[in-house]
Amino acid sequence: MEKNFCSDNCSGVSPEIMQALAEANQGHMPSYGGDLLTQEADTLIKAALGRECDIYYVYNGTAANTLACKSVLRSIDSIICPDSAHIFTHEVGAPANATGSKIITLPAIDGKIKPEQIRTAYEQETYWGPHATRPKLVSITQSTKWGTFYSLEELAAIKAVCEETGMLLHVDGCRVYNVIVAMDCSLAELCQHIDILSLGGTKNGLMFGEALVFFHREAADGFLHLRKQGLQLHSKMRFISAQMKALFTNNLWQKNAQQANLMTERLADGLLKHPDINLYCPVQTNQLFVTMPRTLADKLMAERAFYPNGPECYRMVTSFDTTEEEVDGFIATALKEL
Q: Number of folded domains in the chain?
């Protein structure tokens, strides 16, 4: 089957993950997370994250984000996030529907918001006292919708505002592994600034499954019930846990993310040799946003599919299984159009 540059959701399953699923399929194990594989996955993830935390496995990213919000918000509360955040743009209003909470969006530059924007939004909302909502959660994405990331210093500054104002910081980490590789830091360094993390899996080689990680452990109170009520308690939990265990064994998460990042960098370097192709925003992880004439885009999409992302703006995403040969062949097609 032909590969594409549409999304890392389009990729297959990492061979190591598939092998882990096959091994988990042998015999019977306790259900609902009472199995040994779930315990072993928890141990590996906690060691990588470097902090005490509570971990809960769910089916997908929308569920992780929505239940993260649900765990800490009431209908009188609000969420502050970038105007490009998935919880606002691409999750069918699930967080707002589940919580009844207002979402306060801030204009983002290359997908990112700044601490002073958050503080201003908080002050403007709380100025009205009981006539407005109570901002309780800041939600940002690593990497952002535009493939950029918050540095450790930027995260620390945002966390400082959250602490000043009594808000918690949630990070949508559907592509957090690509960020760690790009930043050349550890998961532990990144997580020191986070209260709740939606820890991805599917975009980095899993068949299905994500994890919701509570570093602010009080926020996890009642989450076992909330996960069940939220339709996310997998009875055969071992089939999520086995994948997460494999992802965190021998740093498979790092290997997969590094390959994806390198292929995006290679793709960008090659395509930018064409005078009509230009960067739309910085290339930092495994997503490339470029501008080009529609006629050129149509010819390239016939070679290998990718998505438009606005007028003459296009997104290309590489995956753990993208190869140099696939990238170089696509670049050669582009340069033939000179």
A: 2
Provide DSSP, 86-124. HHHHTSTTHHHHHH--EEEEE--BTTB--HHHHHHHHHH
Q: What pLDDT does residue 138 have?
A: 98
List b or e across 286-303, with b for residues whose CB sees 16 or more CB atoms inside 10 angstroms: bbbbbbbeeebbeebbeb
Over residues 121-170, the pLDDT tens digits come to: 999 999 999 999 999 999 999 999 999 999 999 999 999 999 999 999 99
Residues contacting residue 38 through CB under 8 Å, at least 6 positions apart: 57, 237, 238, 241
Contact call for residues 306 and 4 (beta carbons, < 8 A): yes
Q: Are residues 90 and 228 in the same domain?
A: yes
Alpha carbons 323 and 317: distance in angstroms, whole number: 13
Environment class of 186 (CB within 10 Å of its CB; exposed 0-12, middle 13-18, buried 19+): middle
Q: What's the pTM value of the predicted model, to 2 decimals? A: 0.97
2, part of any domain: no
pLDDT mean over 188-209: 98
Q: For tokens 């966390």, what's the residue?
A: 159
Enclosing domain of residue 288: 252-336
Tell me, yes or no, whether 74 lies in a domain.
Answer: yes
Q: What is the pLDDT of residue 311?
A: 86
290 and 175 together in one domain: no
Q: How far apart are CA 336 and CA 329, in angstroms?
A: 11
CATH of the domain at 266: 3.90.1150.10
User: For residue 4, is it within any domain?
Assistant: no
